[in-house]
Amino acid sequence: MYGRLRVALISFRSDIFAALHAGCVQGGHLPSLYITGRASRPGTPSYTNMGDKVTDILGDIPVDIDLLLPGSVDGLIRALRGYDIDLAVVCGLSWRLPRSVLEAPRLGVLNIHTSLLPRYRGPAPVQWALRNGDPDIGITIHWMDEDIDTGNIVAQRGNITLPEFVKFDTLWQRITPMIQDLLVAALARAAHGYAGQPQNDENATHAGPMEPEFDYIDWSQPARIIHNQVRTFYYGTATPGPFAKINDKWVRVLRTSLEPTNGTRVDCADGPIWLVETEQATPSSR
Predict the structure, then answer these.
(1) Do 16 and 92 contact (CB within 8 A), yes or no?
(2) N or C end of the chain: which has fewer CB within 10 A?
(3) φ, ψ for residue 122 (rounded to 5)?
């Protein structure tokens, strides 16, 4: 059993840092360092909006906490070792961490993932849940290993309802308090040396980026498939969309309905869908 842990928090926005920080304090542990990656991958150019990200984080950061922006794996290792970190908690880092980083904190690295692993391993679990029409999502805190979202599970929570249309910011406002509560339990288990429950790889599914074809609506698909496609883009993906042709004109479809309502009716493979909100937009590739 370990005592009070010195914890490094690795994330990308102030509200998530605040939830992680509160979870540490509630569990009796010491948040000692904030870290945010300044690029999508180690050794690549910084995000173009990095200044805004830093301003957001610094707006709420406690005065006794340092914020570091490593640009390389070596820099991340030096930070974790230099601050004598017992445990790191990651929520929203796009880097794939090698063993040298995972072994830098004394106990290892915990990752927070917005699915019930092993379902939806990868960077886009909520998007795939929306695309597949899932009624809810979950949160998993697991030990990180060198593969993507495959480490032993430390704590989970399910049955988090997905609204029909929800944006990234709105959903994260709802789930950050749940992350805070789940982190309290995960830190207690980690401090007691809990190795976690191995995942069943036979039940694993992958949640990678959407394929380029997903940017476009195919009216020969069933209406619910198209509706969920629009819901996915409404939440947010790495690209704009989905695009469709209506009366030989390109539009971006923002909201749809499967029930009769004001808007343009379009017949799909198995019935109609109503376009509630659209905007004129020509895809760059067309």
Answers:
(1) yes
(2) N
(3) 130, -175
Q: Which domains does the chain have, with CATH numbers?
A: 6-203 (3.40.50.170), 212-280 (3.10.25.10)
Give me the tens of pLDDT residue by residue for the chain, a chain 286 residues long: 678 999 999 999 999 999 999 999 999 999 999 999 999 999 999 999 999 999 999 999 999 999 999 999 999 999 999 999 999 999 999 999 999 999 999 999 999 999 999 999 999 999 999 999 999 999 999 999 999 999 999 999 999 999 999 999 999 999 999 999 999 999 999 999 999 999 999 999 999 999 999 999 999 999 999 999 999 999 998 889 999 999 889 999 999 999 999 999 999 999 999 999 999 988 876 5
Cα–Cα distance measured from residue 77 to residue 113, given in angstroms and rounded to the nearest whole number: 22
- Phi, psi at 194, each rounded to 5°: -70, 125
CA distance 249 to 265: 15
CA–CA gap between residue 121 and residue 263 (Å, rounded): 37
